[in-house]
Automatic annotation (TrEMBL):
Entry's family note: Belongs to the AHA1 family.
Protein name: SRPBCC domain-containing protein
Activator of Hsp90 ATPase homologue 1/2-like C-terminal domain span: 23-159
UniProt xrefs under InterPro entries: ASHA1/2-like_C (IPR013538), START-like_dom_sf (IPR023393)
Superkingdom of this protein's organism: Bacteria
Length: 162
């Protein structure tokens, strides 16, 4: 199993996903850099993502939607804050309207992704930091922890096919 843990921490206002892969860090980095690869794993299997924009530069943005089993759509946006290939990236993450504009009625988070080489391959740690414990709780109640685990759980198959 790729995903080792998914840990919400109300005091730190974080949700942390820890996963390990039998691949080199550069291969894991490509999972974030290439929107066609992102579409294969970002979002749970029943809610696949489609990236309409993906400007993978500092200050660049990504706009995407996930499509549910009944055809419903959930829109999201990212704004890349730092990129340190192939070790780490940070981005703002939130819900969006249909044009990809941030939805201020929903919580946003800052995501930090650490990619580290280990003897068996790569350890990836995704830490989502929320503005308040209430925002974290709202996202956990919406199923974010389970959804992230299911999403990251799809990566092994992608890396095996590379």
């Amino acid at each position: 199993m790729t995903v080792i843990s998914t840990t919400p921490d109300a005091q730190a206002r974080t949700l942390t996903v820890l996963a390990e892969f039998p691949a080199q860090p550069k291969a894991v980095w490509q999972l974030w850099a290439d929107p066609r690869l992102l579409e294969r794993w970002w979002g749970p299997p029943t809610w696949p993502a489609t990236f309409r924009e993906h400007d993978f530069t500092v200050g660049g943005e990504a706009k995407y939607h996930m499509t549910g089993p009944a055809g419903e759509r959930s829109n999201g946006w990212w704004r890349f804050l730092t990129l340190d290939e192939p070790h780490a990236l940070e981005f703002e993450d939130g819900f969006a309207d249909e044009q990809g504009n941030p939805n201020p009625a929903m919580p946003t988070a800052t995501a930090r992704v650490d990619i580290a080489e280990i003897p068996s391959g790569t350890r990836m740690t995704i830490t989502m930091r929320f503005g308040s414990a209430e925002d974290l709780e709202k996202m956990v109640e919406m199923g974010m922890a389970e959804g992230m685990a299911l999403a990251v759980g799809q990566i092994d198959e992608i890396l095996a096919a590379a």
